[in-house]
User: Which sequence fits this backbone?
């Protein structure tokens, strides 16, 4: 099995944590630099992660998680868990857009429709997820909890949100630091 990704991507990190003790080769690419040709050869959507297993290529962390779960014969996620993933991905995709815009020299704090929409989505989803944490919905260390961990830790690493009012997300993150593969996959190490 081979996982193509990077050490800073929150989408790749969730798969690395999920793979746990599974033996696999990790291909760490700089997708905006010298690793871009390799990315072009492996995924026409030009995104990471990509998993290769027995000649089968799989794009997108969510589909990779489904593939691994089917392979292990695990129960599929419930519809409520799928909604949790959609919220986590919604906030994460918008935050990636903000970061790429900043890296492109755009001031994303401007009062522009596109950035207002991204900021609003990030905050509405994070507030809902924080309320879910308070209700005890992420107590079990399963795939949705791993994805939430990777999102919160990455947002803090990239300094992308104001945590006022959603501090329970940081408490959730702090309480899961000792879970397997969390320290080993910390993006600050790269
Ligand atoms: N829905 C995808 C999102 C993956 C994604 O956006 N990855 C980022 C890295 S954090 C990426 O490859 N971005 C490249 C780009 O947007 O050009 C997944 O869950 O795998």
Assistant:
């Amino acid at each position: 099995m081979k996982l193509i990704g990077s050490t800073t991507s929150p989408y790749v990190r969730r798969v690395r944590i999920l793979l746990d003790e599974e033996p696999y080769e990790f291909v760490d690419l700089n997708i905006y630099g010298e690793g871009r040709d390799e990315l072009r050869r492996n995924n026409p959507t030009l995104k990471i992660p990509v998993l290769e297993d027995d000649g089968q290529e799989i794009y997108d962390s969510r589909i990779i998680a489904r593939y691994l779960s089917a392979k292990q014969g695990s129960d599929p996620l419930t519809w409520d868990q799928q909604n949790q993933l959609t919220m986590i991905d919604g906030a994460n995709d918008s935050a990636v857009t903000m970061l790429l815009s900043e890296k492109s020299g755009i001031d994303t704090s401007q009062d522009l429709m596109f950035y207002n929409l991204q900021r609003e989505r990030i905050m509405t989803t994070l507030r809902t997820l924080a309320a879910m944490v308070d209700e005890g919905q992420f107590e079990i260390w399963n795939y949705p909890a791993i994805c939430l961990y990777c999102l919160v830790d990455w947002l803090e690493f990239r300094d992308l949100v104001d945590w006022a009012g959603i501090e329970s997300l940081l408490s959730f993150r702090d309480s899961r630091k000792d879970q397997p593969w969390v320290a080993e996959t910390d993006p600050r190490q790269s």
